[in-house]
Amino acid sequence: MLNAQMVEHLNQQINLEFYSSNLYLQMSAWCEDKGFEGAAAFMRKHAIEEMQHMNRLFNYVSETGALPILGTIDAPPHEFESLVEVFQATFEHECLVTRKINELAHFAFSNQDYSTFNFLQWYVAEQHEEETLFKSIIDKIKLVGDDGHALFFVDKDLAELAKKG
Ligand code: OFO
């Protein structure tokens, strides 16, 4: 049985994962609108992954006999200056998610809730992967700068990344 505060924190994380999904879906619309087809596909795929993150938490809360509660989800931004700004925003968002996961893990550990602590390890590893991935994409985009021709190839790379499992 989970402690009430732990349930509350996990429910907040469910909400944040929903927000992440909406954020990336909204970004995919921006990318599509600007002709970055690869980036749009990449963002769409990522939006689906975020829904999986949400579901994993939802199931865990439910399995432990607690009640997952869905709250209001903030509207994500929909205007961006450039492709690099979009990816910078994803990176900053992922850093925020990492902080939240760390806080959750800390709370679970200090309350001797080792089951939740163990459950959260998957998210700890996932956050490391996501931060690394987004950082590498930003580096690539920065490297080519405003060169439209080179950006076209970065976009093609993103299309390939979106196809990978
Ligand atoms: Fe992007 O990892 Fe969940 O939020």
Any descriptors?
165 residues, mainly alpha, Ferritin, binds hydroxy diiron-OXO moiety, identical protein binding
Describe the structure.
By secondary structure, this protein is mainly α. The chain has a single domain, classed as Ferritin, core subunit, four-helix bundle (Ferritin). The chain is built from five helices and no strands. The longest helix has 31 residues. The mean pLDDT is 96. The protein binds hydroxy diiron-OXO moiety. Hydroxy diiron-OXO moiety binds next to α1, α2, α3 and α4. Keywords: Cytoplasm, Iron, Iron storage, Metal-binding, Oxidoreductase. It catalyses: 4 Fe(2+) + O2 + 6 H2O = 4 iron(III) oxide-hydroxide + 12 H(+). Pfam families: Ferritin.
